[in-house]
Specification:
CATH class of chain B: Alpha Beta
Largest sheet of chain A: none
Strand order of the largest sheet of chain B: 2-1-3-4
Distance between the termini of chain B: 27 Å
Helix content of chain B: 40-55%
Order of helices and strands of chain A: HHHHHHHHHH
CATH superfamily of chain B: Phosphotransferase system, mannose-type IIA component
Distance between the termini of chain A: 13 Å
Number of strands of chain B: 4
Number of helices of chain B: 6
Order of helices and strands of chain B: EHEHEHHEHH
Radius of gyration of chain A: 16 Å
CATH class of chain A: Mainly Alpha
Structural class of chain B: alpha/beta
CATH topology of chain A: Serine Threonine Protein Phosphatase 5, Tetratricopeptide repeat
Strand content of chain A: under 5%
CATH architecture of chain A: Alpha Horseshoe
Structural class of chain A: mainly alpha
Largest interface: A-B, 22 and 18 residues
Shape of chain B: globular
Low-confidence stretches of chain A: none
Shape of chain A: globular
Oligomer: heterodimer
Radius of gyration of chain B: 13 Å
Number of helices of chain A: 10
Number of domains of chain B: 1
CATH superfamily of chain A: DhaL domain
Low-confidence stretches of chain B: none
Mean pLDDT of chain A: 95
Number of domains of chain A: 1
Mean pLDDT of chain B: 95
Number of strands of chain A: 0
Helix content of chain A: over 70%
Chain lengths: 200, 128
Amino acid sequence: MDDPRKERLIRAIAQAVIDHADELTALDQAIGDGDHGLNMQRGFAAVLADLPALAAKRLPDMLKGIGMTLVMQVGGAAGPLYGTLFLELGKTMPEQPERDDLVAAFGAAIRAVMARGKSEPGQKTMLDVLVPAQAALAEGADAARLKIVAAEAAARTVPMRAIRGRASFLGERSIGHMDPGARSSQLMLAALADAVEQAA
Amino acid sequence: MNVGIVIVSHSPKIAEGAADMVRQMVGDRVKLAWTGGNSAGGLGTDVAQILAAIEAAWSDAGVAILVDLGGAETNAEMAVSLLEEERRDRVVVCNAAVVEGAVIAATEASGGSPLPVVRQAAEEIYGG
């Protein structure tokens, strides 16, 4: 992957998060502590600020660099969770990944997020989008299909009851709102899919 | 050398206040550091500041970290994972209420107890 392509992909993902910061905050105000939008905005603004240097790195190092920036800048639980996702992608992704490599690295990164958050799918978290998205990719989904799967998965968190995170304090009252972490994961996957479609 | 104590709260005021209470109990017999707030000065926790606090409270006997809510725990565990390998095994994040846990852990540490005992004391306050 050449540097301009890496730069476009990162910019697309970061911009999608930043553009939806208010919506993420509103979702988090409904069931959490209301900091998800601002925290993610700060983290991805730091990624954008470092973009040329990040894109100039080898793909695995670029992913680790994004992960460490998120770990250091986000400030809420999303920092170590998304940070771990990117750090682990960087650890397991070869420099010139084939599709199988992407699927495998994404799977390893999701397992690392589960360990970091002591969580699993079905608990109204980002995992409820990441896990079905990875499964769809493993089954051969294209970019358009990935977007649909991610959107449906995020919507399925609405009736879920939160088990992990601040939303779990609300118990039954967490039901009826989309999980902000599921939404941010969906936004990032959709931005990635759009960028891949445009490049194709 | 006694186990060191690190207090991590979303709020710098809570972290500092808890540290004041610990200091009153154990004086200078335990190394103590606290951190609260995110990198932008708002409520939250900051991995870089947690790493700095671990460094400030470092003891060869280890460091027990007390945290408040969710993100503080996750960020503290993230910070521990970023430590050099020989230090990583000597730092624990306690599953305890931050104020009570810090006071009990520090009191236990001030008597020279090893890290697992300090942790257990903090985690057993409420029969946990």
